[in-house]
Automatic annotation (TrEMBL):
This is Acetyltransferase. CDD domains: NAT_SF. InterPro entries: Acetyltransferase_Eis (IPR051554), Acyl_CoA_acyltransferase (IPR016181), Eis_dom (IPR025559), GNAT_dom (IPR000182), SCP2_sterol-bd_dom_sf (IPR036527). Transmembrane segments: none annotated. Residues 2-146 form the N-acetyltransferase domain. It comes from the Bacteria. It comes from Actinokineospora diospyrosa.
Amino acid sequence: MVTVRPYADEDFEDVYHLRRLSFGGPKEPPSTPDAPPGSASALVAQDDTGITGHLRVWNYHQFFGGRAVPMGGVASVAVQPHARGTGVAGRLLAESLVLMREQGQSISTLYPYVIPPYRRYGWEHVGTMQVALLTLSDLAATPRASVPVRPATRADLGDIHACYLRTASTVDGTLDRSAPGFDISRKLELDVLTVAPGEDGLRGFLSAARPDGKRLRVHDLIADDVDTAHALLRQLASWAGTITDASIRLLDPTLLDLTVPGGIQRGFEVHDFMTRVVDLPVAVAARGWPALAEAKPFTVDIEVTDPHAPWQAGRWRLVHEEGAVAAEPGGGGAVQMEARALGPWFAGSASSASLRRAGLLTGSHEAAAALDRLTGAPHPVHLGESF
C-alpha cells in the first residue's frame, strides 16, 4: 500500500538517487541539500519496498495584474520505474494541492515532462519561458549611449532586485524573485554582472555566464529605457570575436525586438508551463485587476467542477467593485468551468471563447465575456526562469 507523507531529512539520499534516475546527474549526492530551508517543501510516496515517488513545491510568488501571488512551483516529480503507471504520481499531485493550500499558495505552476497527468489534476497550459539567440557581430550597429556601466557590487543587490521588479511586475507570469525562494546574492557568483547607475538607483543590469564554447548565456538584460538597453547591448557586442553568439532568457520579449539592430532568433528555446488555481477566493483576492481600474461594478456567476480541490468546487460569484475582485460563495452558476479552465482564465492567457472551444467552459456567452473583462484576456504570459 502506498502512503504519501512529508519529506524528512533522512530521505535525502534515497530521494537524490530517485531524482538522478529520473533526471540525470552525478552518481554521488552532494554533501548538503540543494534547497535552502524555507525555499521549498516536499512530499514522498512510500510502500513496503521504500520510497517510490517524490515531489517538490518551491515557495514562489508569481505576478498577475501587477501583484505577486503566492505560488507553489511544482518540480522534481519522480516515480520509481517499477511503480510507474500505478497512480503514485497522481497521489503526490493530489496531496500537493492540500499542502499548497495549507501553505497559502493559492496558485501552482509547473513545467511538464508529460502532459496528461497534470491535466487530470487540473493544471493547464498558460504560457512560455523563452530563450532567444543573438549573433554578437550583429550588435555592432547598436547606437552608442551615454549611460555609464560598471561591475556590480554587493551594495547593488537591493537596487538590482528593485530594477528587476519594475519590469517583472508588468509581465504576467514572471516571478518576483523574493526570499526564501530566491537568494539575490547568488547573482554575484555569475561571470558577468554589470549595472547601469541612475540618479535614483539603477536604470538596468546585465547578468550572464561565460561557459566553455562560443556562446554567452545571458540570464537577465533589464533596462528601464532605450538608452540603457543600447548601453547593455553594446556590452554584449564587446564579446564578439571571442564568442560567436549569446542566448538570452526573455523576460520582456518586446525589449529586444524593438532595440536590437540585427536579427533575433526568437524561439531558440521555448518551454511551455502550466498553471492551476489551488484556492479560488484566495487567488482572486491576491491578484491585481488593472483592466478594471475605470470599470463600473459588475458580477459574474460561475460554477466550478474540481474533484481534486473540492474546497473550491461549486458556485461562486465574482464581484468587481472599485478595481478589486472578490470570489464569494453562491450565485446562479451562469458559466460552468472545469478545473483546467481556471488557470488560463486566471492568467488571462485564453479567452472564454477559446476555453469554450476546448470544452472547458459552457454556459452563458454574456457572462463568459465578463470573465474576459476581468483579466483583459487574451494576452501573452511569460516566465523568466525554469525550476
